[in-house]
Amino acid sequence: MSMYLSHGWLPMPLILGAGTAVPMNLSYALQLDRDVATEWWRRGRGMLWFQHLRRGGGTSLCNLLRHALVHGEFVEERSEACQPEEWKLRDASVVSGHNLTTLATELRLLGGNAFSQEYGALPSRELLARGAARRSMRRWVFVTNIRDPWSRFWSQLRHEMAPCLSTVQALAVCVAGQHQRLGPWWSPTSHIDSVLGVSGFRISASPHIYSDNYYTRMLLNRTDLNGPPLTEHDYEVAKSILFQRMSAVIVVEDFARSALQLACTLGLNLEAARPLLFTQIRPYQEHEAMMDIPTESELGVQDVTAVRLRFIERNRFDYGLYHEAKKLSEIRVAKCARQNPDVAALRAAPMVQEVKKAPEPVVASLDDIFGCTNGSLEVGPDGSYVLYCPRTSEQASRSWWSPLGSHKRRAGQKVPGEHCWREGFKWGFCCDHRYGPYGNKDCHVVSCGLLTGSLPRFC
Ligand SMILES: *[C@@H]1O[C@H](CO)[C@@H](O)[C@H](O)[C@H]1NC(C)=O
Ligand SMILES: *[C@@H]1O[C@H](CO)[C@@H](O)[C@H](O)[C@H]1NC(C)=O
Ligand SMILES: *[C@@H]1O[C@H](CO)[C@@H](O)[C@H](O)[C@H]1NC(C)=O
Ligand SMILES: *[C@@H]1O[C@H](CO)[C@@H](O)[C@H](O)[C@H]1NC(C)=O
């Protein structure tokens, strides 16, 4: 356990001099970067990038990291699913102008050293770069979650893309990534922005990302489905990043045990972790209850199997990563248990099969999802769903459900006109590009009463 702590100082300058090319093979180089980053983390001076792979148990992992990770400081105020408010439903890297130094600075200014990237990829270019760009990443430790690819996909369809499950043909269309053929392909209780991220800050232009080696593409930042196809070499690189650079890859099916890896890498408060290890948080459970979604057997087991086989074939890189992750997780946890008797005891604890109730409701109702009061979902005259979402401007400004434009800010720069936005209005809501250069007239009158006529100064 004290392997890293026994170093007198960080090994980094001894191994890679400024500007030199990577002198050794990639996987070894990444491993060294991880060791340096781990050392920073253990001294309380590192940063944590939690790559939240969607619909793969990331919410449970977020909860564990928030409460039990030693040295972890997530921004708590107004954050959600481990993402600071302004990065919610957005690629954090894009929000920070593609500059990871800015990202780190902003995170620090918000009072944190850890965040989750859910709607964007891993910064693979920097992680794989030679010289200074790669060394600048050595303040960052990485953690991610992984789940059986088909289970992940199916769960995502159930919760976010229910039209894909209306028939086996629709399912095949979504596996092939031709969602637009279905018309609105997202669930009535979902939104294109909650599936892909807010326009301009999206994970990818197309939901096809989720059915074509999503894990591999996230690790490599190869989210453009029209780009060159993934190769075996890409797969090897993704594998190196996942297993050499990441501090832990938590296998969701074996969450309680797999997460113990953290105890021997970044440090886990096992007392705080114990109850959380056996808690599975399912933020979207209520959506499911609101819709009548067929199960695999209702769609026809044989037909679904044929589509599933096609999915497995297409997603072979993701399956490779997943199987490898399961194997390595077992090995790493066993090794950790040999070093730490408390880990050994938890590892041997009987598995609780039951899904426990989340300690706090993450998403509960239509009102919570869309930010309304007495919202309802009704079938319109043409058979499509219509969402009625009565809400105040305050609710609207807080809700993700409105493709708010977000302007670039410099690191640490305050939200423009912060003092002006009283009575629930906010810059993001009032100055959305949709309203033109003068902002939203209603905000103008209500929130900037004394400053009538001067709104453009703030937008
Ligand atoms: C990379 O380096 C490690 C450590 O030196 C070694 O074990 C591994 O076999 C090397 N891999 C390749 C492909 O050369
Ligand atoms: C990133 O931002 C930092 C300041 O936050 C700046 O010093 C640096 O030059 C920027 N890097 C690039 C590539 O723009
Ligand atoms: C992923 O790559 C795109 C360009 O291809 C870049 O703009 C974006 O910042 C990258 N994302 C991360 C997290 O590095
Ligand atoms: C919401 O609905 C409930 C029950 O129908 C009603 O009592 C309440 O007044 C409604 N609230 C608003 C703000 O309309």
Largest sheet, spatial ordering of strands: 2-1-3-4
- Name the structural class: alpha/beta
Distance between the termini: 52 Å
Bound molecules: 2-acetamido-2-deoxy-beta-D-glucopyranose
In DSSP terms, counting alpha (H) and pi (I) runs of 4 or more, how many helices?
24
- Total number of β-strand segments? 6
Gyration radius from CA atoms, angstroms: 23 Å
Average pLDDT figure: 80
- Morphology: globular
Q: Biggest β-sheet, characterized?
A: 4 strands, parallel
Oligomerization status of the protein chains:
single chain
Q: Secondary-structure element order, as H and E?
A: HHEHHHEHHEHHHHHEHHHHHHHHHEEHHH
Helix content: 40-55%
**Poorly predicted ranges (pLDDT <50, ≥5 residues)?**
1-23, 356-364, 401-417, 419-424, 444-457
- Total count of domains: 2
Beta-strand share of residues: 5-15%
Signal peptide: 1-21
Keywords: Signal
InterPro entries: P-loop_NTPase
Keywords for this structure?
four-stranded parallel beta sheet; globular; disordered C terminus; single chain; disordered N terminus; 2 domains; alpha/beta; two-stranded antiparallel sheet; binds 2-acetamido-2-deoxy-beta-D-glucopyranose; 459 residues; P-loop_NTPase; 6 strands; 24 helices
Protein model, in words:
There is one protein chain. This protein is α/β, with parallel strands linked by helices and 459 residues long. It folds into two domains: 2-148 and 197-357, no CATH class; 366-443, no CATH class. It is 42% helix and 6% strand. The chain contains 24 helices and six strands. Strands 2-1-3-4 form a four-stranded parallel sheet, with helices on both faces. The protein has a two-stranded antiparallel ribbon with strand order 5-6. The longest helix is centred in the C-terminal third of the chain and has 24 residues, at 316-339. Mean pLDDT is 80; it is low at 1-23, 356-364, 401-417, 419-424 and 444-457. The structure holds 2-acetamido-2-deoxy-beta-D-glucopyranose (NAG) (4 copies). One 2-acetamido-2-deoxy-beta-D-glucopyranose is lined by residues 25, 27-28. One 2-acetamido-2-deoxy-beta-D-glucopyranose (NAG) is lined by residues 373-374.
